[in-house]
Specification:
- Helices cover 37% and strands 21% of the residues.
- The chain is globular, with a radius of gyration of 19 Å.
- The N terminus is likely disordered.
- It has 10 helices and 7 strands.
- It has 280 residues and is of the alpha/beta class.
- The longest helix is centred in the N-terminal third of the chain and has 14 residues.
């Protein structure tokens, strides 16, 4: 099932995204595309409970880019955001403060939006408390059965799960180029769509709909490509990673190996995004 042993530790993930909080938004072009894709898919299903005022959760909210978009799509739903990295939570809380008025109902005081610093595998929320569990490009850092089991616990009967995660083929160009340099692992091992489908079924989800697409971002050179990965906190790969710097010669070999992938738009970095919708 899930490739748990290849995951970085929670401490490594938290530290990476804490460091990335200040640089994340400037480098997160792909992450914004995934949010747009997931919102488009969510709009094609029967309105979820969040449309009728049940709370929604942005699980792995990062700096909070999706929160105003979700607030506009579900203006009656109280917003909750959660992330493992404290610096990301701080940024998301500032975003929530700006959208708090969106959730107000005529004649009623809306519940104050909240951002939680929490592990997606053990969230401090009550059973059956959510109408929508939303997560965009966060679950690839988790033990999938635990995270999806937690999502199922939190959703009310008939609630909606909407997730985007990364699958095999993500960073394919980078992995191939690094294979010409050393035998260390430089790319996270991603669960495929079959694993995701089976894990959703095991967690008790129904009406599962999956599809995927490859999104590609281009960079002028290798230095800017590697800097962008670090800027969004995606530079942790877990066991098998190289523990000493490549050095100038190694970077030169990597640049040479990456160059055959160049297109008129620049050096490509591909992400295989898997989208999933399901009912609890």
């Amino acid at each position: 099932m899930s490739t748990v042993p290849t995951r970085p530790t929670k401490h490594q993930v938290r530290a990476a995204f804490d460091r990335a909080a200040r640089t994340y938004d400037a480098a997160a072009e792909l992450q914004r595309q995934a949010v747009t894709g997931l919102l488009a898919r969510l709009s094609t299903v029967t309105p979820c409970l969040a449309a009728h005022g049940a709370p929604l959760l942005d699980a792995g909210c990062g700096t909070g880019y999706a929160l105003p978009l979700l607030a506009r799509q579900f203006p009656r739903a109280p917003l909750v955001a959660a992330d493992l990295a404290p610096a990301m939570v701080e940024a998301a809380q500032a975003v929530l403060a700006g959208v708090s008025g969106v959730s107000e109902l005529p004649g009623k005081q809306a519940a104050a939006p909240q951002a939680l610093c929490a592990d997606l595998e053990a969230l401090p929320l009550a059973d059956a408390s959510l109408g929508l569990y939303w997560s965009s490009l966060a679950l690839q850092w988790c033990h999938l059965p635990h995270a999806l089991g937690e999502a199922r616990r939190l959703l009310r009967p008939g609630g909606t799960l909407a997730i985007a995660t990364l699958g095999p083929g993500t960073f394919a160009e980078l992995a191939q180029a690094f294979a010409c340099v050393d035998r260390h692992r430089h790319v996270l091992a991603f669960d495929d769509a079959n694993v995701l489908t089976a894990t959703l079924a095991d967690a008790g989800f129904a009406e599962v709909r999956l599809d995927s697409e490859t999104l590609t971002v281009h960079y002028p050179d290798l230095r800017s490509l590697l800097a962008a990965i670090k800027a969004v906190g995606a530079n942790q790969v877990g066991p098998g990673r190289r523990t000493v710097p490549l050095g100038r010669a190694g970077l030169a070999r990597l640049a040479e190996a990456y160059e055959p992938f160049r297109t008129p738009a620049g050096l490509p970095l591909s992400y295989r995004v898997i989208y999933a919708l399901a009912r609890s």
